[in-house]
Amino acid sequence: MKRHRHDELLKEAFSDRELEALREVTLARGLAAQRSKRRMRNLRNGVMMTGPVLVLLVTVLFWRSSNPIPSQPITGAHPPAVASIPSLKIYPAVKATDAPPIPTISDSELLALYADRSVGLLGKPGQQKLVFFDQPVKAVN
Amino acid sequence: MTAPHEAGANAIAMLTRRLAVGEEEAFREFHAQYFDRLHQFLLVVARGQEHEAREALQETLLRVARHAREFDDEKTFWCWLRAVARNAARDAGRKRTRYRKLLETFAHFTRPALPTGPDADDDRLTAVIDECLAEFAPEDRALLHGKYLAGATVNELSAKEGLTAKAIESRLLRLRRELRERVLAKLRRS
Asked: Is the pTM of this model over 0.80?
């Protein structure tokens, strides 16, 4: 109680214009600091809330770009639902291995295919290109 | 029913929690409650150097706004505030010229030992005020005592002294100025 009374006495004894100005200035600066602190806190909370989601998203995108999902092979393991309809003719699924092999032809056989045109083979053996001399050359990237 | 000290502790806990999250109204309350108390404390720390005390006060309040955290009771909070204020005063002191610092260091080592407990500065100010009040003439001391220790109003004092309220206010103003000078002089000498 005595201390409280001393506080009042000191407050009135030391109060002057300069101290009142300081009171105003410190209040304004403190309030500005509080506002700044609250903004930073909100920003930090926002980052903490959305950060993990963003990291997860980036990880998934990176993983998908580095490991593309292979297309599903068409097999006869899962016949379509229409198979039970007797009027429809069911064809067996075509496997890549069932396709006929691509025939290989020699250089002369290739040139013979374009006997009526002005053609030629340019480049080293094994890396040759078929060039048509009777039409303008297109820029190729 | 909540005990008064428990209610006080809850109020401090709530105030400091709001301060810690950056609530502006909480800082207004804190400022209203602690501005004068911290100023008086820093007057003792700065040994009566008003300019230094005010400079440190400004820095202290800014640090509180930036680094406040939750405290469970008023005593712990006040201990923390004193530590912040002392650090602010010390940091402000570091900015002063080397020569002045040297003189202060010399004065620190040559001055008589002061009480150094956790409440030493608070106790020191109370002791200085008591000393200063004791030096006043009995009628002046009675007037100050009546107004600030007994809590009498100016009208009550004027009726008791047989003077007008204006005359009492004028005397109180003179006595407050005198007390201020005496307190500062004693703190500077301490």
From this structure: no
